[in-house]
Specification:
The protein is built from six helices and seven strands. The longest helix has 17 residues. The protein is globular, with a radius of gyration of 20 Å.
Length: 144
Amino acid sequence: MRVLLSFGISLLLFGCQAQQEPANAVEQTSAGVVKAQQVNPFADLNAEQAQKLIADGELVVLDVRTDREYQSGHIENAQHIDFYGQDFKSKLAELPKDKKYLVYCASGNRSGQAVTMMKELKFEEAHNMSGGIGAWSSKYKTVR
């Protein structure tokens, strides 16, 4: 009986360990620099993580707020597609699917929905900036 109980507990512990998500993969560049790569191509990023990717030039920044919101201030070089526009999904579908995207709005709600659409449209990688432009502008400059 003890043997069966011990065996059962071992299986349970082993099963729990096997289901853990992998952390970040690590890549060594030709210059010897080690950098972490995001494992989940549709993960939410905070403003600091987003800024690092923008600085590396690794992604397209997409602002999905209204025209008025965009004009009040946006991340430099951000492309703009109004989430509430009737043609939003078709404009989204026209974007190159093999590029990396950072999508943001005012708070992270619309951009989160946009990233879900991008996943459905078979984009390879799109990240929602949690906290939106509010989180960004509290730390970094916006363009007016």
